[in-house]
Amino acid sequence: MHSRITGDSAVGCASPSGDGGTSVERVLCLFDPGEQATCRFVRTAVMLANGGRLVVPVENASVAQSLKPEATDAPVSYETRFLERPPRITNAWVKDVVDRFDITIIFDIRDRKSVLGGGELAFASRSTHVTVTPGTEDDSISSCLVPVTRGPHLDATLDVARAVAESNDAWLDLFHVVQGDGRERETDALFQYCTERLDGFEDFDTWRYEGSSPAEAIVDQSSYYDTTIVAAPRKGRLREFVDGSTTEIVQSLCDNTVVTVRSGDVDFSRLDRWLGEFLAPKR
Fold first, then answer.
1. What is the pTM of this model?
2. All residues at 6 or more sequence positions from 232 whose CB lies less than 8 Å from its CB, including other chains
3. Is the pLDDT of residue 140 over 50?
4. Lowest-confidence range among 8-17, 50-59, 105-114, 152-161?
5. Reduced to 3 states, what is the DSSP secondary structure of residue 82?
6. Where is this region: Disordered (predicted)?
7. Mean pLDDT, residues 230-250
8. DSSP string of 47-72, one letter each residue
9. What is the distance between the alpha carbons of residues 210 and 221, in angstroms, rounded to a whole number?
10. Buried b (16+ CB within 10 A) or exposed e, 215-249
11. Out of 152, 202, 226, 232, which could bridge 266 as a Cys pair, Cβ 3.0 to 4.6 Å?
């Protein structure tokens, strides 16, 4: 049972149901008690909810009030739905909220280390799952390293990267690691695709980097950026469990904040979904 602390607050936003042909996001934002509602990643969740709906479990009405559109300085419009925060946020509770509000993005800012690249709830909910692994320094975001490669999570990663940049007035470096020469045409095509996906956003550059290990290259270069935004692994869940992944290495070894994006549009096997639910942090 969900108790709503405040009523809906809509500011000229599109219908969350997508009426009129408008594509909107319905974002569930999870953050720890005591986290400031003005936290930059909360602002990113708000940016993703532009024209749609922001659903947030909160402890009291004052937190809810601070997240209403008229109380924020974000240049976006969105509808708010606030839920009374349960004593313990469980995976079952999250999945129930996802179903009830038809959530498209789970934005998880809780201070915990994700396992196996994060995004475990995406397997069960079919929502895009964004997890934030805090770094040692977490004061501001002015630059983001965004490793890009062809894969099922690329579109969602670019969308989240743009939202992070726009909500923090930050710069993006799209970073692609190649092993050896002769891949210029493929890399150029990849960067062209990314440019088109960013759809008019201009505060970014592209960087073709030659190296033998993508994980090593990303970890080495991440120290020069405030945040690394990385896609979830492309390999199957069983291989990820047995062999690990570039994403897991990046999360474990990067000193800066790592934002991991797993698209909900990816088809998962029954085994993948079972492993996702089994490995998800039980909190």
1. 0.81
2. 117, 118, 119, 122, 153, 247, 260, 261, 262, 263
3. yes
4. 8-17
5. strand
6. 1-20
7. 60
8. HHTTTSEEEEEESSHHHHHHTSGGGS
9. 12
10. bebbbebbeebbbbbbbbbbbebeebbeebbbbbb
11. 152
pLDDT at 244: 42
Burial of 6 (0-12, 13-18, 19+ CB in 10 A): middle
The Cα 74–Cα 162 span in angstroms is 14
The CA distance from 274 to 272, in Å, is 6
Helices (H), 174-269: 184-198, 214-222, 237-243, 246-253
In the DSSP assignment, the letter for residue 79 is E
Q: Tokens for 195?
A: 């440019």
Nearest to 137 by CA among 218, 223, 217, 220: 223
Higher pLDDT, 42 or 265: 42
Percentage above 70 pLDDT, the chain: 75
Is 143-262 in the same CATH topology as 19-111?
no
- Give the SS3 label for residue 115: coil
Residue 26 contacts residue 50 (beta carbons within 8 Å): no
**Residues 95, 2 contacting (CB under 8 angstroms):** no
Pick the CATH number of 19-111 from 3.40.1380, 3.30.420, 3.40.50, 3.30.565: 3.40.1380
Q: What is the mean pLDDT of residues 244-268?
A: 78
Boundaries of every domain in the chain:
19-111, 143-262
Q: What was the pLDDT predicted at 241? A: 41
Cα–Cα distances (Å) from 130 to 13, 109, 153, 178, in that order, read 23, 8, 11, 26
The answer to which of 77-86, 91-100, 147-156, 271-280 has the lowest mean pLDDT is: 271-280
Tell me the per-residue pLDDT of 116-130, one tens digit each, with 9 for 90 and over. Answer: 445 566 666 778 999
In Å, what is the CA distance from 244 to each residue of 198, 235, 240, 241?
Answer: 30, 10, 5, 6
